[in-house]
Amino acid sequence: MPVGTQGTVKAVSPRELHELGAQIILGNTYHLHVRPGEKLISRLGGLHRFNGWDRPILTDSGGFQVFSLARLRKITEDGVHFQNHLDGTPTFIGPEQSMEIQRDLGSDIVMTFDECPPYPCEEAVASTSLDLTLRWAVRCKEWWASQPDESKPLLFGIVQGSSYPELRAKSAQELVKIGFDGYAVGGVSVGEPEPEMMAAIENAEPHLPQDRARYAMGLGTPPQMVEMVARGIDMFDCVLPTRLARNGTAFTAAGTMALKNAGYAEDPGPIEEGCTCYACANFTRAYIRHLIKAEEILGLRLVSLHNLHFYLNLMRTARRAIIEGNFAEFRRAFVAGYKKNEANA
Amino acid sequence: MPVGTQGTVKAVSPRELHELGAQIILGNTYHLHVRPGEKLISRLGGLHRFNGWDRPILTDSGGFQVFSLARLRKITEDGVHFQNHLDGTPTFIGPEQSMEIQRDLGSDIVMTFDECPPYPCEEAVASTSLDLTLRWAVRCKEWWASQPDESKPLLFGIVQGSSYPELRAKSAQELVKIGFDGYAVGGVSVGEPEPEMMAAIENAEPHLPQDRARYAMGLGTPPQMVEMVARGIDMFDCVLPTRLARNGTAFTAAGTMALKNAGYAEDPGPIEEGCTCYACANFTRAYIRHLIKAEEILGLRLVSLHNLHFYLNLMRTARRAIIEGNFAEFRRAFVAGYKKNEANA
Known about the structure:
Chain A has 15 helices and 13 strands. By secondary structure, the first copy, chain A, is α/β, with parallel strands linked by helices.
């Protein structure tokens, strides 16, 4: 899922997202609540009409941003009091408020409101936090159960439990008891080493039902995503394709490429040989490097398009490999090819 | 002509320019000489291949930028010594150098190298400057005459003469004696009041041949352009559509519109009712205002598209009105409608 934090995937239009084959995008509940506000978006017909995206939208719960962006947080059983990062307005979001905001946005997949403990985190703290997250998950489910059936979106629960295998397992098991339409693994890619990130997935996954979507939140690099697909993950959201693009960094099967490098100044080739994206079909590395050096918006637009194409295409390729029964081979080749080059860079 | 200073019309892709119906774009010789350099562009196949624009490109001569951007200028009969605005590299551009740079870029319409006196400017200074510009125009013409015929671009002369009617007339007459494929009026929109700007056109135009394109350089507002069309001008280049867009200001037939204004926060209408551009066909003022307030690139992209559509469509409408014999009526209605609203704003 390309990430549309403030109601737009950065630097990319809905038409371009369609052409890239994006099936779904993510919107950030916290950001849209702070600006322009879900009530305004609702009065204008919901987020789909507001931003001109007619395919599914998943909204996160705001939990992660409350814990990473907001100031003067105070956590209670009810929810979180905080001052927003823009103008410091005192705000309260609890499970019910998060559900109401996501309903007003007109989301298609709604996430439960969770507490996101920092990394590293002592086991006792992680355990207390997880219990609160589970009680909030119950309240989110109850809130949705009370809503009218018509056009009710899907509700996904979020596994927490920091780096503790037992907590991850307990979190997944308890969520499944509550019952959700899909399950996410949160609290990953928060600063932990990659083996711990993979372990968090491995400790949760066996307890999640096979017939429900599994979603790893807020990551990752291309090999990380392929490794997580191998561990049963179906969905991802990640800001890397657009964030790195704005710095002039492109993704390729051989690793990342800093297009600012002087070595590309006269390079007549596309960002990635054989790539079918608009940038690669029409422009040279030399031109894109010039645009980035000259701080021209078209430069980061082109790299954003390429990177989103790369990510979406990687997932398409993984899906096809699974269907055709050669995922293991694809995984091995892709991860080896990508890492080798990164080490060389 | 949309302006592509550094080899790209700011925030807009070649595909979008095609869809907007742009027939020709402008490239800035000075900027492209400084970065990435015309030799590099030439080795990559010329500016058209470099930036992926397959329709005509007009390049200015660099004169205006040398006199507005560069530092430590020293003017001699040969040309201008200066330090570029980016890293202070000492550089020399005279008529022949300007011609060579424009040839290397692969321009379709090449402009003569001129001295651009400041405004205001005493008559003696303006007269001396004009004589130098005319001698440089002869050298530009001679340089082009010495070039092989195959795929030789068009060469346009530039009328100078500041705010002095006799100098403007003399400049036009002398240029016509030298003989060019088209004629531009330069040294306008450099800080003078609008009546003086119009007078500069009026003092030059009668001396320019009817069967050659006339081009007013570096302007203007929509009513200014319509007024200049009424005075015989055929071509314009102007940064206003894209520059104002980046500040969230949109052009409409009723005047400019600052989309940041709180009054548009919940406005469900398009930027301009009846407009067929991508922004107006798909997005509300409310959404675009949100994007601009949130400093999202898509916001300035959408306003850039709208503004370029507005300018290009204005010229299409003026052309049609001329062909259909009702230009006087169109001019009166458009200028009245635009100005009235600006006064109200």
